[in-house]
Design the sequence.
């Protein structure tokens, strides 16, 4: 392995501690800080700047950058590089995300850690390339065929674009699953101030490499060295001679396509390894929830006008609060259940025709009213538009 | 001396067809899969060319050079990547 | 007499016996390609801990499962893109790809073209049986004109794909095509391809009696294997006859498939050039390069 994460070299390449940069470039910074050493990308508005930023900086920290021939090749190369030991990521938007779905499922089935940054734009199809939206949220969870668990984060500021990319790598390495960073065109092309954290304030998690005796190692089962459903990682080239396949496989990795118990055991393990940890994974921001009777449940770019609307309402004495989801998948259902218990109305502003609102409705379970506040067409909600939803409060 | 792993043989007959001195035939017994595997004839002219070993799709044939064979080996054992074993 | 390497010893060293016997039909040419690969690896003395086999989907793509080394069985047509990633993360690994004619030139055509163009340091062993065998016998891009398949029941009206011609035009370092019926030259060719830096491709013409042979009146296994002997011609012979032969001779060989080594050159590979780029950047670092 050529790449070794060198914190000094990384900070030398990143530059000043406080900078004024694009959201796309903040994702690049986050990847480099986490130790990303392979980027396979393809140009697509509004995520081209991520590829350009990586093309500039990754060779300078001795990583490898390849512009692949299409998005399918990009995600394939990212998965291959991950199996050879590199932390790898790719960046795309709606149309590219749709193309990547088959191999996204492959990464889930073979338990490969990787990061996909999706700078969402309006759809369906080519849509409005330069304007943002939040139309892929359900696709991150249900896009590929079959049963699986997704992990997705939604940044609301450019600083979060950077922090959440580092967090995405940590979660990917810990759970051996692909992780999506669901930014959007508004965040991607916004310039804001970021502060690059020092090495001592940064938490980096790496995959646990396989170290036990080669005869005894079982590649696709609970870990043999610690209590976890995530197996240790037998990097290619370390002598474990693993056979990795997307077919349903038994614990040794050999195809077992005609046996029902094998498939059930495998799929239940790779889904429950994430859902078991729902309490530690849940990551939300709560504003004024202790006395609120009407609450905005929001994520990503639409959290910003929602917060303004909430402040406007508060200044007039209305009891309004906000719950911002930082980790959207696996869905923090316990928070919604608790919230629905003691409020009257939940409003869900989204830059799509209503996607996460369905989950909120499911877990609110009739305990309160759930109203969707959709807006499509590439424009963010205006605070007074959201304020008008509060008229009844 | 030719050893054929009977349970690996699928009975395709390519070794029998391609042997240049016609030294192989189908045996009368069945293997576990109900196939007649190939076997060396009782009375054979095998010159250790190793073609059967190289061409068997199931890797079931191994050719051993006999140390105390009665007839002289007319050809030395060929190396599959070209040239001869010295 | 020195110790002779026999098939038995090779099997013990390289075969993953837990997965044996193969899923291949009797008379299939895929097992023979596995055989040739083992002999070539043995000759080169490759370190099996540092070798990775990548494959797509299909009968040919089941081969890495039978080899006792790291294997990656990926999605249909994308094996070459996965292999590019593996090589990028760790250029010291030997990466060998097993793929089929439909997997490589149909759905995977784009990845094949760009990997050859970039001269990525991998070896592609493509097994061409003119049909999509695993799914039951559908038409493949390389099927000869007029052949029958389940999705072309009245005969194929499309021109077949000459993959070796395409890869040669893209400037890959080593391009060859061999039938599986005669062992010595293909084994040597596989060894040369693996030793070579840069993109090397070997196309193996393998018979598929079950899906292709039955439908195209190629009779039983013996007759099908004989078809390959009758309808292939070495490149040198082809050129000699085309330049100096009589009209009747030219007519006879006009439609035969050419076999042999098409191209054998030395161009620098992608990762060699990338290393030079990294070195250039490190050199300018001391002189205060801009961001």
Sequence:
């Amino acid at each position: 392995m050529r790449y070794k994460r060198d914190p000094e070299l990384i900070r030398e390449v990143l530059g000043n501690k406080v900078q004024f940069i694009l959201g796309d470039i903040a994702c690049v910074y986050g990847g480099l800080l986490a130790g990303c050493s392979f980027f396979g990308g393809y140009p697509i508005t509004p995520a081209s700047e991520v590829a350009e930023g990586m093309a500039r900086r990754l060779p300078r920290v001795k990583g490898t950058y390849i512009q692949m021939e299409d998005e399918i090749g990009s995600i394939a190369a990212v998965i291959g590089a991950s199996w050879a030991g590199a932390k790898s990521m790719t960046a795309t938007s709606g149309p590219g995300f749709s193309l990547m779905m088959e191999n996204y499922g492959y990464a889930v089935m073979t338990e490969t850690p990787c990061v996909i940054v999706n700078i969402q734009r309006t759809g369906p199809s080519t849509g409005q390339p330069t304007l943002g939206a939040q139309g892929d949220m359900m696709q991150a969870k249900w896009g590929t065929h079959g049963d699986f668990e997704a992990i997705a984060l939604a940044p609301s500021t450019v600083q979060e674009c950077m922090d959440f990319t580092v967090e995405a790598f940590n979660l990917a390495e810990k759970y051996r699953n692909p992780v999506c960073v669901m930014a959007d065109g508004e965040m991607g092309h916004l310039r804001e101030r970021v502060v690059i954290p020092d090495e001592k304030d940064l938490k980096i998690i790496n995959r646990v490499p396989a170290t036990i005796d080669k005869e005894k190692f079982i590649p696709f089962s609970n870990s043999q060295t610690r209590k976890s459903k995530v197996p240790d990682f037998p990097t290619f080239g370390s002598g474990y001679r693993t056979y990795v396949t997307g077919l349903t496989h038994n614990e040794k990795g050999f195809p077992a396509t005609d046996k029902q118990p094998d498939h059930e055991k495998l799929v239940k393990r790779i889904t429950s390894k994430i859902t078991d940890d729902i309490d530690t994974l849940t990551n939300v921001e709560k504003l004024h929830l202790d006395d609120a009777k009407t609450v905005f449940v929001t994520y990503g770019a639409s959290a910003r006008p929602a917060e303004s609307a909430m402040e406007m309402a508060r200044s007039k004495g209305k009891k309004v609060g906000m719950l911002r989801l930082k980790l959207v998948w696996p869905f923090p259902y316990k928070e919604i259940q608790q919230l629905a218990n003691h409020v009257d109305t939940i409003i869900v502003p989204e830059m799509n025709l209503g996607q996460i609102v369905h989950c909120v409705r499911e877990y609110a379970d009739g305990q309160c009213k759930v109203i969707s506040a959709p807006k499509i067409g590439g424009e963010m909600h205006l605070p007074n538009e959201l304020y008008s939803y509060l008229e009844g409060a | 001396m030719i050893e054929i792993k009977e349970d690996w043989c699928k009975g395709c007959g390519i070794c029998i067809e391609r042997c240049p001195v016609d030294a192989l035939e189908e045996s009368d017994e069945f293997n576990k899969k109900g196939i007649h595997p190939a076997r060396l004839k009782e009375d054979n002219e095998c010159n250790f060319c190793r073609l059967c070993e190289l061409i068997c799709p199931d890797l079931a044939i191994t050719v051993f050079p006999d140390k105390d064979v009665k007839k002289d080996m007319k050809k030395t054992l060929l190396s599959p990547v070209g040239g001869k074993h010295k | 007499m020195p110790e002779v390497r026999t098939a038995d010893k090779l099997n013990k060293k390289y075969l993953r016996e837990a997965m044996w016997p193969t899923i291949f039909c009797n008379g299939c040419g895929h097992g023979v390609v596995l055989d040739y690969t083992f002999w070539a690896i043995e000759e080169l003395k490759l370190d099996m801990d540092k070798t990775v086999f990548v494959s797509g989907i299909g009968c040919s793509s089941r081969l890495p499962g039978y080899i006792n080394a790291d294997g990656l069985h990926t999605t249909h047509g994308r094996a070459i893109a996965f292999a590019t990633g593996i090589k990028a993360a760790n250029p010291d690994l030997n990466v060998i790809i097993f793929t089929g004619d439909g997997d490589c030139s149909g759905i995977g055509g784009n990845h094949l073209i760009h990997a050859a163009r970039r001269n990525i340091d991998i070896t592609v062993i493509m097994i061409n049986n003119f049909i999509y065998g695993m799914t039951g016998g559908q038409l493949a891009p390389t099927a000869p004109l007029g052949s029958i398949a389940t999705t072309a029941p009245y005969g194929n009206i499309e021109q077949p794909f000459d993959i070796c011609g395409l890869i040669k035009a893209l400037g890959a370092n080593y391009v060859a095509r061999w039938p599986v019926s005669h062992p010595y030259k293909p084994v040597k060719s596989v060894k040369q391809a693996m030793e070579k830096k840069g993109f090397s491709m070997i196309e193996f013409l393998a018979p598929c009696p079950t899906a292709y042979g039955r439908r195209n009146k190629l009779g039983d296994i013996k007759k099908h294997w004989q078809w390959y002997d009758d309808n292939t011609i070495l490149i040198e012979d082809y050129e000699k006859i085309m330049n100096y032969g009589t009209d009747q001779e030219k007519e006879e060989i006009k439609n035969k498939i050419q076999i042999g080594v098409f191209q054998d050159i030395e161009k620098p590979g992608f990762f060699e050039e990338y290393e030079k780029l990294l070195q250039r950047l490190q050199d300018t670092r001391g002189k205060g390069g801009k961001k």
Notes: The domain at 7-201 of chain A is CATH 3.40.50.970 (Rossmann fold).
